[in-house]
Amino acid sequence: MVFAWKAAGLTYNRFLAVSARAVRRSLKEEKRLVAERRGEMDLRFAKWEDGKQGDVKHLAQANTAANAASSS
């Protein structure tokens, strides 16, 4: 027996993300806002060189900048 998410070509993590988004969107306004705030992620990273930490950047902003640079 193959799981439906696997048959659809999704990874388990992607399946969970899609499911969670669908549940959050189905909630009433007040509870939906609380749930959406809980679902946000704030990922940051820094590049290390010669044992020193570089600038800390937000992943979403760095991703947007990289996409803009590659499409230009």
UniProtKB/TrEMBL annotation:
One of its GO terms (biological process) is proton motive force-driven mitochondrial ATP synthesis. It comes from the Eukaryota. It holds the Pfam family ATP-synt_Eps. GO terms for molecular function: proton-transporting ATP synthase activity, rotational mechanism. InterPro entries: ATP_synth_F1_esu_mt (IPR006721), ATP_synth_F1_esu_sf_mt (IPR036742). Signal peptide: none annotated. One of its GO terms (cellular component) is proton-transporting ATP synthase complex. Belongs to the eukaryotic ATPase epsilon family. This is Mitochondrial ATP synthase epsilon chain domain-containing protein. It comes from Sodiomyces alkalinus (strain CBS 110278 / VKM F-3762 / F11).
